[in-house]
Amino acid sequence: MTMSIKKCTLEDLLILQKISYETFNETFKDQNSPENMKVYLDKAFNIKQLEKELSTSSSQFFFVYFNHEVAGYLKVNTNEAQSEAMGDESLEIERIYIKREFQKHGLGKHLFNKALEIAKEHNKQKIWLGVWEKNQNAIAFYEKMAFVQTGAHSFYMGDEEQIDFIMTKTLN
């Protein structure tokens, strides 16, 4: 088993779009209507949107490879790229997604450690993220990584309002 992490560039745009669609769909399709899923996927992961996100200097994407195959990805944001105003001392993990077939191999933890490394490089005091209140597997993972719930915000899946827990980890 080999595992590696590589920073994404604009040249990775189509691969990023494919894995974004695939992992988001695998994770949430069973709990959401096909119409709301389509609206969200088309908005969040269209080429123009992903190109804009990849070109933002305060956002970074990373692929995780398992046996030389793209198995998942990470997106982190700092400063004004954060999806909530959490201040300059914070780093946001906006997305950690692993394809279902590659889950339970520790890849999420490797991506989390990459986010932690970036936070430390940038002298951040906190890492935070939003996680859907019904995503118990993710919540359990983040609690294991010493995150605590510090708030909540609305997230729209198409026309349906959902609640994301804001979870924060204070760094030493």
Structure in words:
By secondary structure, the chain is an alpha+beta fold. The protein has one domain (3-124): Gcn5-related N-acetyltransferase (GNAT) (Aminopeptidase), CATH 3.40.630. Helices cover 35% and strands 35% of the residues. The chain contains 5 helices and 7 strands, in the order βαααβββαβαββ. The protein has helices spanning 13-28, 34-44, 47-55, 107-121, 136-144; strands spanning 3-7, 59-66, 69-78, 90-98, 126-132, 148-157, 160-170. A 7-stranded mixed beta sheet has the order 1-2-3-4-5-7-6, with helices on both faces. A hairpin with a 2-residue loop joins β6 (148-157) and β7. α1 packs across α3. It is globular, with a radius of gyration of 15 Å. The N and C termini lie far apart (32 Å). The model has no long low-confidence stretch (mean pLDDT 94).
Put the structure in a nutshell.
The protein is α+β, with helices and mostly antiparallel strands.
Notable features of this structure?
seven-stranded mixed β-sheet; 7 strands; globular; about 35% helix; single chain; about 170 residues; Aminopeptidase
Classification by helices and strands = alpha+beta
Average pLDDT metric: 94
CATH architecture: 3-Layer(aba) Sandwich
Structural shape = globular
The figure for the number of domains is 1
CATH topology: Aminopeptidase
The CATH C-level class name: Alpha Beta
User: DSSP helix count?
Assistant: 5
SSE arrangement:
Blueprint: E1 3-7, H1 13-28, H2 34-44, H3 47-55, E2 59-66, E3 69-78, E4 90-98, H4 107-121, E5 126-132, H5 136-144, E6 148-157, E7 160-170
Parallel strand pairs: 4-5
Antiparallel strand pairs: 1-2, 2-3, 3-4, 5-7, 6-7
Helix pairs in contact: 1-3
